[in-house]
Design a protein that fits this description.
Layout: E1 3-8, H1 12-22, E2 29-35, H2 38-48, E3 52-56, E4 58-59, E5 62-63, H3 68-73, E6 77-83, H4 86-95, E7 99-102, H5 106-121, H6 130-136, E8 143-148, E9 151-156, E10 160-166, E11 169-174, E12 178-181, H7 185-191, E13 198-202, E14 205-208, E15 214-216, E16 221-224, E17 227-230, H8 233-243
Length: 244
């Protein structure tokens, strides 16, 4: 089966690079349109209804988020493209959306295409991109998107009590429910590395410090929602200095 794609990118050089890279995958995909502005993209999407698009976030006349409603209407899926910025990467990872960093690497492009085709085949719904929008609008991750049943769920970071390592998985406890995710704890530590309230306290635990009800220096532990959480000797001084 051949899949149609759109390229929404205002920089000519970036367009050409992506077109050349996609040439290697012409047995799978066909470029339906190349758009340079928000208005042009909306018209092209309505005309060509591509299966998925490569969408640059910064565009003349607005940004990539101004096009999302149009893409949803025509059931086109999205791979975001972005210039490298440390926080932006964390925002994308926290929001569980597909993205490619510029300059785009051929092997990373192939992975993104294969993942997108799999999404189309399994008819998975497009993600709610509001989580990504809110994360990119601030200097701190506000939400994370997790896999939930056969879909996705957005969690407010302020509602997360703690993260607990479970082998190759991580258990996320919120004020309302718990979720087991197929990422190691280090993945979440990377996302929240610069976050003021999410702190790593133990090799198996990360906590949201606003939910701490009690702490004990002698026991080297904190309590959150009746759960006693150990503080490692290595982290104890830094953690208790923050709580003092």
């Amino acid at each position: 089966m051949m899949y149609t794609i759109g390229i929404i990118e205002d920089e000519y050089f970036a367009q050409r690079v992506l077109i050349n890279l996609l040439e290697k995958h012409k047995s799978l995909i066909q470029i339906a349109h190349i758009s340079s502005t928000v208005e042009e993209a909306k018209k092209d999407i309505a005309t060509y209804t591509p299966d998925f698009v490569f969408l640059d976030i910064e565009l003349p006349g607005g940004n990539g988020f101004d096009i999302i409603d149009c893409l949803k209407k025509h059931k086109s899926k999205i791979i975001f493209t972005t210039a490298y910025e440390k926080f932006a990467v964390k925002a994308f990872e926290a929001s569980a959306v597909d993205y490619l960093l510029k300059p785009i690497l051929p092997e990373r492009l192939l992975v993104a295409i294969e993942r997108m085709i799999q999404q189309i085949k399994t008819e998975k719904e497009a993600l709610n991109y509001e989580g990504l929008k809110s994360n990119l609008a601030t200097n701190e991750v506000q939400t994370i998107t997790i896999k939930y049943k056969d879909s996705y769920k957005i969690l407010n970071v302020s509602d997360i009590l703690y993260f607990k390592a479970e082998g190759a998985y991580t258990h996320i406890q919120t004020t309302e429910a718990s979720y087991l995710q197929s990422h190691k704890l280090n993945f979440y530590e990377g996302i929240f590395q610069q976050h003021a309230s999410i702190i790593r306290v133990h090799r198996s635990w990360m906590i949201h410090r606003k939910h701490i009800s009690t702490f004990s220096k002698s026991k080297r532990s904190v309590t959150i929602a009746n759960q006693e959480i150990p503080i490692s000797k290595t982290n104890s001084k830094a953690v208790f200095d923050l709580l003092a």
